[in-house]
């Protein structure tokens, strides 16, 4: 199943950025949502506790915030640039692309597992501290 479409003129592998796909135009299909800026690193709780990097570990089972990079033409609920809170594991593995803004890692998310939407970046503390 395809989630986005790139034409052959939009894709070039370069020696300077191995494994990065050069992209001029990126259009997801149907109502697909593609995100970037998803954080997996160390976090700091409200109480000042350092929560270690939890990527690929059982301790990392939690929702995450990500910024909407691109939406398909049928997507009416979101806009590019908004921040969305996604249920744990409801995204694809990252694909490294290079666009006009530099190297990005993009992921397609499952639309049914978008929990919250924000127009501004939300600090990713332990969400139980916020009563969520």
The CATH topology turns out to be 10 Kd Chaperonin, Protein Cpn10, Chain O
Uncertain segments are 7-15, 127-132
What's the tally of helices? Answer: 0
Rounded Rg: 16 Å
How would you describe this structure to a colleague?
With 132 residues, the chain is mostly beta strands. The protein has a single domain, classed as 10 Kd Chaperonin, Protein Cpn10, Chain O. The chain contains no helices and eleven strands. Strands 2-9-10-4-7-8-11 form a seven-stranded mixed β-sheet, with no helix packed on it. A two-stranded antiparallel ribbon has the order 1-3. The protein is globular and about 40 Å long. The termini are far apart. Mean pLDDT is 78; it is low at 7-15 and 127-132.
Short description:
The chain is built from no helices and eleven strands. It is mainly β and 132 residues long.
Salient structural properties:
disordered C terminus, mainly beta, 132 residues, 0% helix, single chain, 33% strand, 10 Kd Chaperonin, Protein Cpn10, Chain O, globular, 7-stranded mixed sheet
Write the topology of this structure.
Layout: E1 4-5, E2 21-22, E3 27-28, E4 33-36, E5 43-44, E6 50-51, E7 64-71, E8 83-86, E9 95-99, E10 102-109, E11 114-118
Parallel strand pairs: 2-9
Antiparallel strand pairs: 1-3, 4-7, 4-10, 5-6, 7-8, 8-11, 9-10
């Amino acid at each position: 199943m395809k989630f986005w479409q790139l034409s052959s003129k939009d894709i070039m592998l370069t020696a300077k950025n191995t494994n990065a796909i050069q992209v001029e135009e990126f259009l997801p299909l149907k109502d697909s949502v593609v995100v970037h800026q998803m954080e997996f690193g160390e976090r700091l709780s409200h109480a000042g506790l350092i929560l270690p990097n939890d990527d690929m570990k059982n301790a990392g089972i939690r929702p995450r915030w990500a910024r909407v990079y691109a939406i398909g033409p049928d997507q009416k609920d979101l806009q590019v640039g908004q921040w969305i809170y996604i249920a744990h594991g409801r995204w694809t593995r990252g694909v490294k692309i290079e666009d006009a803004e530099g190297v990005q890692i993009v992921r397609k998310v499952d639309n049914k597992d978008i929990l919250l939407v924000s127009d501004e970046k939300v600090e990713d503390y332990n969400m139980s501290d916020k009563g969520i």
